[in-house]
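USER: Fancy drafting a protein?

ASSISTANT:
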Amino acid sequence: MLGGELYDPMDPELVAARERARDLCQALNSTREAEQEERRRILRELFGAGGDTVWMQPPFFCDYGSNIELGERVFFNLNCVVLDVCPVRIGSFTLFGPAVQIYTPLHPLNAELRRREECGKPVEIGSDVWVGGGALIMPGVRIGSRAVIGAGSVVTRDIPEGVFAAGNPCRVIREITE
């Protein structure tokens, strides 16, 4: 699965791992603002890396959590979703607006195969990236450091570092020079 090969999503080990993550997300999402220590404990347990410094504004949802590796002080605003059947690597000081969704799963075009198996492609996001609210980041995408992704964008291909990109499909609008 992690290598992008076809896999059976109903494999008991994968089902158990998803249930673990869903239970942790439910616990996180039911915490109150005053329960910061409990949130931190859950985030350390949920993420593969970065749970110590992530700034999370619940609710948050993911498939496995353990496939998400965060740099220092990544921020997720309300209602973000990360479907992490493949690795999701996010650099330090990256900010996600509300309702940003990051997808790694893919499904075969062949309907018969799609009934039994799926696959995925990893997502990599550099440091100091700002992703505007409601953006969708599709499987296999790489976003370079210091890029800004406009709200509502659908990122279907790689975005270089140091640019402002927006739209559906997302495209580079200009370099960031200031």
The first helix runs from residue 12 to 29. Helices lie at 12-29, 36-46, 111-114. The CA atoms of residues 63 and 84 lie 6 Å apart. DSSP finds three helices and 18 strands in the chain.
